[in-house]
Structure formats: C-alpha cells, structure tokens
Design a protein that fits this description.
Blueprint lengths: L1 E7 L3 E4 L2 E4 L6 E10 L5 E10 L7 E3 L4 E3 L8 E12 L2 E8 L34 E8 L7
Antiparallel strand pairs: 1-4, 2-3, 4-5, 5-8, 6-7, 8-9, 9-10
Length: 148
C-alpha cells in the first residue's frame, strides 16, 4: 500500500492592524506511507515520512526595555521518519520500530531553561520534536485472532 497526503493550512490571525500567518503552524505538510505485507502474511513492513514546512515563530519580548517584538523569524523545515517491522506468529505479533529516525530535534526550545523562575523563562516556543531517535520493541497478543 502507498498513501500520500498533502495539507495546506492558511491560518491567519490579526496582530495589531494586520493579518499575519498564525504562529507555530506549518503552512505545508506532506505525508508518505509505504506498507507491505508478505504473501504468507507473517511479515509486515511500515514506513512513514512526514514533512513540515517552516512555521512563523511567536512574538518575542525584549527584556531590556520590556517591549514586544513582532517576529518574522521562522522555524526550520524538518522531516519525521518512522518505521516498523512486525512478525506474526499464531496469536502473537512481535515488532520492532523506530520514531524520528532523522534524529531532528529543536535546539534550545526553552528560553532561559536554567532559570525557571526568572523573568526571561519561556517554554512556549516549542515548534518541533524535542527527543531524538526512539527505538522500541514489543509483543501483542490477540485473544481472538482474526484473519487479515
């Protein structure tokens, strides 16, 4: 199976007297999923890739004179790739997979993270994944296994 999707989001908000792209929402998103089941139906392979376009970053506060700065800064475009392999044996599924296989992580997502009670601390600028590659393994057991 091959699945493709594209999403265009033109989300606008009023900032002052002008309409601007809403912060933290990627304008373009793409998705590809490749799935395969072996002829004997004992192996399943699944690969997914999502692409996120840059999104506008929020308004920043200038801490020296406590004024708001309208930001035209954008986040980076990034891909997310996930994969899983499953072996089916009777009522058991044994699987191994990985998430965020590109290991993309947002750098420094929290402003002044070492000073959480300070006036500059800001945890609202998270616009991408914070954790890197995640590998997992598992077992599923079906009480009433249905034929696929």
């Amino acid at each position: 199976d091959i699945r493709l999707a594209y999403k265009f989001l033109d989300v606008q908000a009023k900032y002052g007297n002008e309409m601007r792209q809403q912060v933290m929402i990627p304008r373009h998103r793409g998705f590809v999923n490749l799935a395969y089941r072996s002829r004997n139906k004992r192996w399943e392979y699944d690969f997914t890739c999502s692409i996120f376009s840059p999104s506008r970053l929020p308004i920043q506060r200038d801490m020296t004179n406590d004024t708001l700065l309208i930001s035209d800064m954008k986040s980076r475009m990034y891909p997310m790739m996930n994969a899983q392999i499953t072996h089916i044996y009777k009522k058991f599924d044994f699987y191994i997979g990985g998430e965020n296989l590109t290991n993309f992580r947002q750098r420094d997502p929290i402003i002044d993270a070492s000073n959480p009670f300070g006036s500059k601390f800001d945890a609202t600028n998270i616009c991408g994944p914070l954790t890197g590659v995640n590998i997992y393994v598992g077992i599923r057991y079906a009480i009433a296994k249905t034929k696929k």
